[in-house]
Specification:
Elements: H1 4-15, E1 22-25, E2 37-40, H2 43-55, E3 72-75, H3 77-80, H4 106-111, H5 113-119, E4 123-126, E5 130-132, E6 147-153, H6 166-179, E7 183-189, E8 192-194, H7 199-202, E9 209-211, H8 225-237, H9 248-251, E10 254-255, E11 260-263, E12 269-272, E13 278-280, E14 300-302, H10 316-319, H11 332-349, E15 353-357, H12 364-377, E16 382-385, H13 393-397, E17 402-403, H14 414-422, E18 431-434, H15 449-459, E19 465-470, H16 489-494, H17 515-526
Amino acid sequence: MPTPLEHVREKLRTLESHTANYCIPTLWLPPHTCAGVRRLQHPAAYYRAVIDRILTLPETSLRHPLGQHELFYLAPVRYLTAWDHCGTGEISYAVSSDGWRQTGSLLKTIALLPYLQSLGVTWLLLLPPTDHGRTRIKGTLGSPYAPRRHATIEETLAEPILELDAETQMAALVEACHRVGIGVVVELALRVASLDCPLIAQHPEWFYWVRVDAPQPLSPPNFNPETLATIERAVSNGTFDALPEPDEGYRSLFTEPPVEVWSNSDGTFCGHTADGTLVCVPNAFADYPPNDTQPLWTDITYFRLHNHPAYSYIAYNTIRYFASQLNGWENRPLWDHLASIAPSFIERFDVDGILLDMGHAFPRALLERIVTCARSAKPSLLLIAESFDRNDPIATQLGFDAVVGDCWHHAHSIEAFRRYAASLSAPSALRFFATPDTHNTPRIATRGFNVAAYAYALCTQLPGGIPMITCGSEFGECVPINTGLDFRPEEMAAYPPERLPLFSGCTLSWDVPDVRLLSYVRSLHAQDGR
C-alpha cells in the first residue's frame, strides 16, 4: 500500500506537464545560498523531484531522547513557505488561477526540507496546524491559536491541486521529515476554542455563557489595589480556598448553559436558557494577572473546565488559579475530550513530540491526564511545556522533557546575554530552548549582526539548552511574527494584526537574505557534526 508521501508523488506525476507562471525564492534551491527568485515553468515536476530524492531514503522512526547536538526550527506552516508565486501582489487563501496556493503549505514545507538539512535542523516545531476559526478573526487570515476543530488539520495548509486532503498531506510531511532524519513536534492549543467552534452547539455545557446584553467584547473584572494584593499573596502562597471573587455586577453577566443553541450568520452561537434568557459565548482575555493590560482575545473563548453553578464566570480563579471550591466539579466529558487530542495526533500522523500551549492554565489533574494519555500513545514522546521557568516544578513533576525557557528575554545585547550565560552555571531541572528570539518576540536581527552572531554562537554552548531557530531569523528577517513579548507600546502600534504573519498573509524575506548571517549560523551547526 502506498505511503502518504508516495500518494503525493503520484499526484504530482500526473501534473508534471501543467505549466504555470510560478516563481520561488532561489534560496529554496541547492546550494541554498543565493538571493533572488527562480521561475518554474513546471512546479509539479520540481516538487516531485524533491520527493523522489526523499523517497530514496529509508522510512525511519526518529525519536526522543534528545541528544547533545540538536537544532529545532520553529515555523508556522502558513507563513514559512508563503510566497507570491504568480505576482498578484498579495498573500491570501485564494488559490491562484494555476491552482497553487500562495500561503504556506505542507507540500512546500516538504520541498524545503533540503534547506533545513543544510542548516543542520534535527527537529521541526510546527505552530498549531489545526483548523482555525473564521469569525471575528485577527488580521486578514486569522490565528492558528484560535482552534475551531482541535484534532483536524487546517484545510488551507493543503495544496488543492493535489486533490488529497490535508490529513494525507500532513502525514506526508511527517513521513518526509522522518526519512531525512528530522523529528516533528506540533504545538496544540487545547485551553481555548474559536467562537465558531462546533463544540459550542454540540456541548454548550463545555463553555461559558453571558447575557446577550453583556458588554462586547468582554473585559476582565476589575479589582481594587487592596484586593489585587490579596490575590497576589494567595497565589504566591498557593492557598486557593479563599480567593477573592469578582463583584456581583460582573458575575451576574454570566448564566447557566442554554437549553437550545443556534448559529448566527457570522458563525458565532447564541441560545436561550431554561428561563428564556438570551445568551451568547463571551470572548477570552489573559488569564493572569487580573489587571493584565494586553489586548483582549476577541477571537477565542475559554473551555469551562468545571461545572460548579456558583463559578460560571471567567476570571483568574476559574481559568488559571482554580478556587478550591471547584474540586469535585470537574467537567469530566470535556476532560476526556481534551485528553484524547494528543493521542489522536500521534496515532494518525506519528508525530514525535507535543508542545502544549497554555498548559499552566489547566488544573494539575487534567494536565497530568493529558500527559499520561499522550505518553501512553507513544512512550518516547517529547513533551514540551510552554513555561519560561527552566525549573518549573509542575512540568518537572509531570515528566515534561523541556520548556520554552527565558533565553530569548536576555538576547537584546551582548552584555545581557553574557550575564545570562554566566547564571546558568547550575544545571536546570529541564532542557530549554536556547534561542535569541521566538515567534512572540522581537527578531534578533533587529539588534544588528554582531549581537545576532554572538547570540547564535552562545546558544550552542548553554548548559541544558537546545538550540532553536525561529524561521527566517537565520537569514536576518526583521519583521516579528507576533508582538506578544518584550515589545514597547510604540513597537506594538507599528505592527497591528494586519502586518503580523501570525494573523495575516505575509512572506519571509527569502529573496533578500542576509547571506553573511545565514552562512555563519549554518557554520555553527556544521561544527556540531550534524
